[in-house]
């Protein structure tokens, strides 16, 4: 069987979240380059998962599929897109068998034969009964993913669920653990495993406290919700980097958006021929906090290459390369991105900007923000009304939006070209509102 | 490590939920073990709990993402945990009131106000925690940085009508909502994905006008979000235009005029000379 790919679901969800409500069924399907039939099928499948994930939370029960994605800040802090990672297909009989096995091992350590008996008596009558070989292969799988543990002792081996994480902690400690996992999953990357763990701990807490208010004390403002979709490829890439392996994938460059300006949202689902087959040596993965997006930086025949994670589909690991080549290229890359605001590997330039302090009665939020977000730049001089910030960056394209976000509190001094661009942009912005 | 593991399948998870079984995979434990190395862990747990966790996870692997994963344009992480989180989260859970003393702008301290803690809010942008609470005497919804809280009374106060107050808070929050509409300047439609990414942290709806090929984004602003949206709009520059939202329009006009003044460009004079 071909490896199950979730590319379609990922693209589908990304588009649904980013363009919530914009398109009709037909438009949506067109933009993804799929038939309306496939669109409906994908929706049905995702709906089923969402429905099943939220069935035990009464408040969320009646939520409609599309509404699930129109997130409402104060309602719930469950990451709405997490269910993507619940989408791996499993046969009905297998899901029933595995949950029976885990349920049984939750209470006591059992042997394979004992588990076989439990399974045979517990399975629905319309499903085929498992044999010993199946149970042994289930146990092997569960041990591999770290869900169960083989107990020490003579044969026949006994297995038990590996849940010390909750069984060894008191109720009060479990609250601390849940909070820590919640905070870290929401503030650090990678986060998907954290969200999965949070989900398990939350359900465990809900069994004791029925009050949702008690379970969700934290809110996270200005979170990039769609960032977790791109973590889908992250571990494949990290593993390839670790093993110095090339990867192969079909890439839909955002640049091609320009050549398909009429279908400008997302060419990722166009016919395959629109994508480009890429074989490249991955070196680093970059998470950009400015947009909540992920990049792959790699080495290919053309030199250093950059890919947006959202354009990568059908990724597979390829052959390894010499360690020395990997090391050399990694060092080269590290040198090149040392001054990248994000990932620009262009020529380094020194940018100097004067920032104006707010009035004397207000706290200096301008300086606070420059110190917080200004990366490796430095404040080189200061007087009563302003301060000068200086930074060496590769090109000015990536830092420009940040400087502009300060509005009239920031005046670019150097380079002169950037200063001119800023003036031109402010003139244009002014023209938008002048006569309104 | 594969995030699409069979064991994470939704049918398995919901069956386990029915039987009350807690399951955790080695991936999740590896993530947790890695996070426990973060300095925040020391503030999140008592030292006994932290020891216990570390011993439970002793045989687990750590995720070695740090060598290959680079974070860019990240704010300095000045605060991930705050010592008061553990205290307030329990007050929130128990729905009880406390007396708060806190510092306000200008450095003055307000003493012993009867407060009902509602939620703890982290700003991803400012990297700081806030307490959202209800001021019982003034009947007002408040937001205070945890770092500005000077003291909390040790004793808690049982309040009789907590649920009514929570309803009141929801009403206040709803009444502070405010809709604005932005339009992607069609010339920049090809940058739509980037623009929508930048706006993805707001409650929003996108509308597509097929005939004119125009995208409009309706943003539902919660109280106090205008400033952040303004900084995002300046960040995006000429790519988006505010269509509805008097306050935002006025502020953007002001920003552009003042900025041009800083650069020594006097637009009104130029305008006159053209005419």
UniProtKB/TrEMBL annotation, chain A:
<dbReference type="Pfam" id="PF25583">
    <property type="entry name" value="WCX"/>
</dbReference>
<dbReference type="GO" id="GO:0003677">
    <property type="term" value="F:DNA binding"/>
</dbReference>
<dbReference type="InterPro" id="IPR051534">
    <property type="entry name" value="CBASS_pafABC_assoc_protein"/>
</dbReference>
<feature type="domain" description="WCX">
    <location>
        <begin position="348"/>
        <end position="429"/>
    </location>
</feature>
<protein>
    <submittedName>
        <fullName>Predicted DNA-binding transcriptional regulator YafY, contains an HTH and WYL domains</fullName>
    </submittedName>
</protein>
<keyword id="KW-0238">DNA-binding</keyword>
<dbReference type="InterPro" id="IPR057727">
    <property type="entry name" value="WCX_dom"/>
</dbReference>
TrEMBL record, chain B:
<protein>
    <submittedName>
        <fullName>WYL domain-containing protein</fullName>
    </submittedName>
</protein>
């Amino acid at each position: 069987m071909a490896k199950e790919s979730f590319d379609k679901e990922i693209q589908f969800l990304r588009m649904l979240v980013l363009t919530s409500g914009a398109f009709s069924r037909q438009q949506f399907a067109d933009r993804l380059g799929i038939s309306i039939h496939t669109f409906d099928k994908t929706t049905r499948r995702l709906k089923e998962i969402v429905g099943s994930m939220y069935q035990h939370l009464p408040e969320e029960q009646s939520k409609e599929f599309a509404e699930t994605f129109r997130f409402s800040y104060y309602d719930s802090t469950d990451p709405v897109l997490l269910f993507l990672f619940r989408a791996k297909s499993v046969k009905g009989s297998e899901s029933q068998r595995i949950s029976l096995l885990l349920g049984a091992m939750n209470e006591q350590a059992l042997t394979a034969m004992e588990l076989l008996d439990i399974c045979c008596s517990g399975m629905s009558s319309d499903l085929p009964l498992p044999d010993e070989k199946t149970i042994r292969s289930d146990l092997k799988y569960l041990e591999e993913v770290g869900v169960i543990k083989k107990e020490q002792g003579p044969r026949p081996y006994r297995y038990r669920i590996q849940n010390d994480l909750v069984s060894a902690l008191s109720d009060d400690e479990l609250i601390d653990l849940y909070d820590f996992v919640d905070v870290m999953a929401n503030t650090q990357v990678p986060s998907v495993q954290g969200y999965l763990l949070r989900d398990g701990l939350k359900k465990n807490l809900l069994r004791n406290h029925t009050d949702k208010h008690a379970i969700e004390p934290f809110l996270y403002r200005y979170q990039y919700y769609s960032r977790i979709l791109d973590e889908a490829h992250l571990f494949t890439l990290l593993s390839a980097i670790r093993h110095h392996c090339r990867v192969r994938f079909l890439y839909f460059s955002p640049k091609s958006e320009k050549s398909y300006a009429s279908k400008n949202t997302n060419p990722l689902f166009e016919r395959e021929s629109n994508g480009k087959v890429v074989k490249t040596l991955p070196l680093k993965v970059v998470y950009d906090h400015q947009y909540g997006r992920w990049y792959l930086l790699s080495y290919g025949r053309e030199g250093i290459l950059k890919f947006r994670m959202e354009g990568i589909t059908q990724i597979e690991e390829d052959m390894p390369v010499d360690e020395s080549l990997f090391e050399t290229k990694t060092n080269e890359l590290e040198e090149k991105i040392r001054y990248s605001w994000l990932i620009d590997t262009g020529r380094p330039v020194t940018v100097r900007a004067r920032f104006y302090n707010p009035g004397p009665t207000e706290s200096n939020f301008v300086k606070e923000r420059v110190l917080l977000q200004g990366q490796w730049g430095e404040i080189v001089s200061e007087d009563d009304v302003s301060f000068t910030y200086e930074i060496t960056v590769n090109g000015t394209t990536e830092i420009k939006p940040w400087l502009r976000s300060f509005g009239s509190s920031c005046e670019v001094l150097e380079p002169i070209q950037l200063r001119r661009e800023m003036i031109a942009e402010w003139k244009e912005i002014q023209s938008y509102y002048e006569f309104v | 490590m594969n995030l699409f593991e069979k064991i994470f399948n939704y049918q398995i998870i919901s069956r386990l939920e029915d039987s009350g079984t807690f399951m955790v995979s080695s991936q999740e434990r590896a993530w947790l073990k890695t996070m426990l190395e973060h300095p925040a862990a020391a503030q999140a747990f008592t030292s006994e709990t932290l020891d216990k966790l570390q011993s439970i996870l002793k045989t687990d692997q750590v995720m070695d993402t740090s060598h290959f994963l680079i974070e860019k344009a990240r704010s300095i992480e000045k605060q991930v945990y705050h010592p008061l989180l553990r205290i307030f989260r329990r007050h929130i859970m128990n729905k009880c009131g406390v007396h708060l003393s806190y510092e306000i702008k200008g450095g003055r301290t307000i003493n012993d106000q009867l407060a009902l803690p509602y939620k703890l809010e982290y700003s991803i942008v400012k990297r700081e925690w806030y307490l959202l609470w209800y001021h019982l005497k003034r009947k007002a919804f408040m937001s205070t940085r945890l770092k500005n809280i000077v003291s909390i009374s040790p004793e808690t106060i049982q309040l009789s009508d907590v649920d009514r107050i929570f309803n009141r808070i929801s009403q206040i929050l709803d009444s502070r909502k405010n809709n604005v509409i932005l339009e992607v300047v069609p010339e920049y439609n090809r940058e739509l994905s980037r623009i929508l990414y930048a706006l993805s942290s707001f409650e929003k709806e996108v509308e597509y006008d097929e005939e004119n090929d125009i995208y409009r984004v309706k943003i539902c602003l919660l109280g106090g979000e205008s400033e952040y949206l303004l900084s995002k709009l300046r960040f995006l520059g000429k790519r988006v235009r505010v269509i509805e939202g008097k306050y935002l329009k006025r502020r953007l006009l002001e920003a552009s005029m003042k900025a041009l003044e800083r650069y020594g460009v006097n637009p009104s004079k130029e305008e006159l000379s053209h005419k």
